[in-house]
Amino acid sequence: MPTFTTYDGTELSYRVSGEGEPLVCLAGGPMRDAAYLGDLGGLAAHRALVLLDARGTGASAVPADPGTYRCDRQVGDVEALRAHLGLERIDLLGHSAGGNLAVLYAAAHPGRIRSLVLVASAVRALGVVPTDEEWDRAVEVFADRDGYPEARAALDTIGPDTPLPRVYELAAPFTYGRWDAAARAHAAAGAREIHWEAAAAFHGEGAYDPAATHRALGALTAPVLLLAGEHDAGPTPAQAARTAALFPDADVVVQPGAGHYPWIDDADAFVRPVAAFLDPAVRTVTVDGVRIAHRVAGPAGAPPVVLVHGRGESSLTWAGIVEELAADHRVYAVDLRGHGLSDRPGGYGFAEFAGELGGFLTALGLAGATVVAHSMGAAAAYLLAQREPGLVGRLVLEEPPAFVPLDPPRPVAERPEGPLAFDWDVVPTTDAQLNAPDPAWRADLAAITAPTLILAGGPTSHIPQDQLTGLAAAVPGARLVTIEAGHLVHEARPAEFVAALRAFGTA
Fold first, then answer.
1. 3-class secondary-structure state, position 170
2. How far from the centroid of its chain's Cα atoms is residue 454's Cα?
3. In a 3-state reduction of DSSP, which class is residue 444?
4. How far apart are CA 330 and CA 323, in angstroms?
5. Is the Cβ–Cβ distance between 421 and 312 less than 8 Å?
6. In sequence order, which ranges of 236-349 are alpha helices (DSSP H)?
7. Phi, psi at residue 481, to the nearest 5°?
8. Secondary structure in 3-state letters for 388-433
9. How far is the C-alpha of 76 from the C-alpha of 79, rounded, in Å?
10. For residues 155 and 160, what is the distance between their CA atoms, to the nearest angstrom?
């Protein structure tokens, strides 16, 4: 493991997991070996996680002065790591008690922070401390869990003289959204990984001055994300919201069903909002309570173009197209619900995607934009153009389904093994609608007023090309252009795809 020497001569260790831009990660516990963070549920697929073992934990050396275990005296360790890594500014993540150290570092070095993520952090450094009453209310959500009465009775025995290891043991069942085998194993490791003497000193007297820290954070210009578990007792979502209000620019994400270790409870639900926040090319907007990720490129004020992907894809499918369009357009590539870095709330279907696309256009003030959409997204786009013609300026439909009942119908699809880049529930829902579509979806094609271009992929596509001919005939004034590339025209023939857009007057 790589090491560096911090301000007082103590040799500290860290490990790197993943590739890409570094994300410095501060462990909680307090004073727990950073190994418990693992790859943060797969976040290492998006960033290189730099996992610091705090002094006296993991592979880091024990300091000569035990007083340096106090949180505020570890700020210099984070700064020494930054300098060692050769980074002018850092993206910084703190979990639980590690969020206090992250906040103190941001207050002391606001210009060194590019972005700040606080995961399940009740930030004592800002005066946010869960009360016993808040804990009692929060744990009641687990009342139906097996063994709750006994675990709750044991929790109530905690007093001011209860040793920290015992407090940790008794509280553990209430710190995970699911108290399953994975959670039990993760919790059991904590008893071995926490340096208990150092943990007792971490929040020691003099560590925090909330008023002074709050004032210092006024100079912080970097964005802040607070991620709270829905069922976490410390911080509760309400406490996370109170903490967010103390920063100049902060957002709160509440992970459904999660506790104090959200990447253990639901790795995908944890990674998506954090990865979206950390990616400077990605932005989010909330539509009907669903966080929708999208990528933006091109000059502000240029004519807007909205790109909508097909089933199982994401905004990344348009990478080869965005560069061309962004030269003279403001390009918005959206991740529909259940896809990419957007939420996976359920409630999928063509009508739902159409409504969401309309909400997206409305939320960003993009009424009248050109909408370029592929396959499933194209169907959603033309349903929207039927319902709300004022929202769509020009319409480009690449290989859209024509909503002719499938004969024979598609059989029930089997979910592939392993993780997927989208919510599998999208597939059976949309397959059922393709088998027996709402007749109104075809009957209302005449209501589309936007100039429309339909791009067909030719005989190698799985979409019957005569159906696209019929679709073009049903949409007033629609043009049909065939580029023999199969179903993924924009990926297989990007230059011809863009040329067709420009000939249509879209770009």
1. helix
2. 33
3. helix
4. 11
5. yes
6. 237-244, 262-265, 267-278, 319-325
7. -125, 130
8. CHHHEEEEEEECCCCCCCCCCCCCCCCCCCCCCCECCCHHHHHHHH
9. 5
10. 13
Residue type, 478: A
Closest C-alpha among 153, 53, 48, 169 to residue 101: 53
Residue from 399, 375, 395, 385 nearest 306 by CA: 395
Closest CA to 49 of 77, 22, 80: 22
381 is written with which tokens? Answer: 């786009």
List, for the chain, all residue ranges whose pLDDT scores fall below the cut of 70: 506-507
Place of tokens 């100079």: 219
DSSP 210-224: HHHHHHHGGG--S-E
SS3 102: helix
How many CB atoms are located within 10 Å of the residue 347 CB? 14
Neighbours of 444 (CB within 10 A): 16
Phi/psi of residue 504, each to 5°? -80, -15
Provide the H-helix boundaries in 159-266.
Answer: 164-171, 181-193, 196-202, 210-216, 237-244, 262-265
- List, edge to edge, every strand of the sheet that includes 22-26: 3-5, 11-17, 48-53, 22-26, 90-95, 113-119, 224-229, 250-255
Task: With H, G, I as helix, E, B as strand and everything else as coil, classify residue 306.
Answer: strand
| One-letter identity of residue 99 | G
Q: In this structure, what token pair is assigned to residue 377?
A: 């997204």
The predicted pLDDT at position 135 comes to: 83
What number of CA atoms fall less than 13 Å from residue 44's CA on the CB side? 14
> Which residue in 141, 136, 146 sits closest to 180, CA to CA?
146
Give me the helices (H) in 326-371, please: 350-363
| Phi, psi of 261, deg, nearest 5 | -125, 75
Q: At 242, list the tokens.
A: 């109170």
Query: Phi, psi at residue 453, to the nearest 5°?
Result: -120, 130
Q: What is the sign of the dihedral through the CA atoms of 33, 193, 224 and 358?
A: positive
* Cα separation, 261 vs 35, whole angstroms: 14
Q: Which tokens sit at 352?
A: 């739902």
Pairing status of strand 11-17 against strand 48-53: antiparallel
Residue 304, classed as helix, strand or coil, is: strand
Classify the phi-psi angles of 368: left when phi > 0, otherwise alpha if psi is within -120 to 50, otherwise beta: left
What is the predicted pLDDT for the residue at 132?
82
pLDDT for position 506: 66
Reported as type and span, the H/E element at residue 376 is: helix 375-387
